[in-house]
Amino acid sequence: MFLGQYQHSLDEKGRLTIPAAFRFGLGDGAYVTQGFDRNLMVMTKSYFELVYGRLGSMNITDPTARLVKRLVLANAYQIEVDKAGRILMPTTLREFLALKNEAALVGQGDYFEIWNPADWALQMEKIQDTEANAQRFAIIDLSTGK
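User: That's the sequence. What structure does it adopt?
Assistant: Structure tokens below.
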């Protein structure tokens, strides 16, 4: 599972150091693609294959299905972690996020996200707005049944 938040640097070649806590899941290789917010999603090979299967089962005559397939698949790249624990970030995805020297890496359970630190700071403001959260999350049942 990918949990927690980390801030790591990119080198001049566009390589991003992956936190040691996240590297375990990327041993078989992984995929990085554009996320649904102004972020990237890094998925293990097995999780990406599940997502790919779901995308493949969508009706190609549905314009929304075509858009989501384009968003995910046209921006997806296979990546590997090098011996120094880094991944090479594709130029197009670095440009999409306007990544320079730093990136925020954010665990999401089955995958993790990569954010421009300024955009992640804005997300954190939303996350930490307790009044808005009370309304936003009221319909979500997180009870464990105990």
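Residues 35 and 87 are 17 Å apart (CA to CA).
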